[in-house]
Amino acid sequence: MSVSLGAYELVPASVTPLIQDSLGVGQSAAGLVVGVMFGTAVVASLPVGVLLDRTDSRRTVAVGIGLLLVGGAWGWQAATDGAYWPLLASRVLGGIAYVVTWNAGIDIVGRSFSGPNQATAVSTFTASGPVGFALGQALGPVVAGVWGWPAVFPVFAVCSLPGLALFLATSRGLGRAAATPTPTWADLRGVVTDRRVLLVGALGFLGYALYLFVNSWAPSYLTQQLDLSLALGGALTALFPAVGVLSRVTGGLLSDRLFGGRRTPVVLGSFVVATPIVAGFTGLQRIPVIVAALLVSGFAIQLCLGLVFAYVRELVAPEVAATAVAFLTSVGLAGAFLAPIAAGALIELVGYPITFGLAGGLGLVGVVLALYAPEP
Fold it and tell me: What is the pLDDT of residues 236-253, one digit of tens each?
């Protein structure tokens, strides 16, 4: 389910030039078609987390996938009609579906592996995100070429159905935390005012901002500045999220095994390696070098993107763990929401090189914060 949602979430980035030509919108408006799902998650994530701490998350997931299917059909109709604002509304509905499934998945996996392998288990689950992103980047232009670009919305929504069937068949009894009291509103308020949680949230914000910046605008850069085909630009950029399948699992393993459960060394290393590559990306011209840069930076930044969700769960009591995850999701996806939109405006104003350089500046902030981050 999470793979399908990840593909649905990012797939408009792979056909951005087609969206601009078909709907007659600029780069910022086209970026909003991607970013609005993240913006929705920013607003909806914390209420969803509170709900998951108080209800059966298994049933909530089924409702979320139902919303995704409606959003996919609505998005196809709106895009076919050339209706920009209804298309954005359909993406809002998809954003609600995404945040329900993501938060519930992390909560269920975190509770099922609450021992010394928690970071590895949670990071492995979050690897579904880059798998979906890679499929969306690589297959979006293919789907658009066969059925037209509006088809990308229902195609990836329908792909969630096999996952839903398997989830419902294998997750009985996992919908609620056992032997934990129902959290009070004071407990929940304590989560969102905890300085340690806020700091980890800031790291999540910066990590996701860098991640979505590259995912959203590297295809357009490769197509518009280096004259690559849309399909080739999408395929090359798909390497950036795809390497996260290995990277996110590795981040959990390194933290659990090599660093004995410490989280900050992996987070620090993530920003230290990714920052200079992102900042200097537009200085690269040869395809093999670009491929290497996408692989290394994608591996580095995603080392921490799964780990931070296990990290934040360990800073709070078990009965409010879903709320802590939801808070991190909200703050992290705020970065994912703002990055494509702000980058589109900056690209129109100052061009690609300066915009990529400014993105590298965000990475430097991440390095500084990681030096002061607490261990759980």
Answer: 887 888 888 889 889 989
Q: How many C-alpha atoms does 39 have within 13 Å on its Cβ side?
A: 15
What was the pLDDT predicted at 299? 94
What CATH number did the domain enclosing 34 receive? 1.20.1250.20
Q: Number of folded domains in the chain?
A: 1
Q: Which tokens go with 251?
A: 């981040």
Read off the tokens for 336: 């994912």
Q: What does the pLDDT look like over 310-345, one tens digit per residue?
A: 888 888 887 788 788 888 988 988 888 788 788 888
Distance CA 105, CA 53 (A): 13
In the chain, where does DSSP find H-type helix? 2-14, 16-23, 27-54, 57-80, 84-112, 118-126, 128-147, 152-158, 160-170, 185-192, 195-224, 230-237, 239-242, 244-253, 264-279, 287-302, 307-313, 321-350, 352-372
Q: Is 158 a member of any domain? A: yes
**pLDDT confidence of residue 285:** 83
Task: Give the distance from CA 220 to its chain's centroid.
Answer: 19
Question: 319 lies in a domain?
Answer: yes
Place of tokens 């790291």: 203
**Residue in the block written with tokens 């409702």:** 63
pLDDT computed for residue 85 by the predictor: 94
Q: Give the span between the Cα atoms of 158 and 227, in whole angstroms.
A: 33
The conformation of residue 183, written as its DSSP 8-state character, comes to P
Q: Which amino acid is at 222?
A: L
Report how far residue 86's alpha carbon sits from residue 29's, in angstroms, rounded to the nearest whole number: 13
The whole-angstrom separation of Cα 359 and Cα 74 is: 34
User: What digits encode the pLDDT tens for the residues 182-224?
Assistant: 667 777 788 888 889 999 999 999 999 999 898 878 888 888 8
CA 116 to chain centre: 25
Q: Does 178 fall in a domain?
A: no
**What's the predicted TM-score (pTM) here?**
0.77
Show the domain range for 163. 2-173+185-372
Whether the Cβ atoms of residue 137 and residue 237 lie closer than 8 Å to each other: yes
The pLDDT tens digits of the residues spanning 114-157 come to 777 888 888 888 888 878 878 887 889 899 999 999 999 999 99
In a domain, 88, yes or no: yes
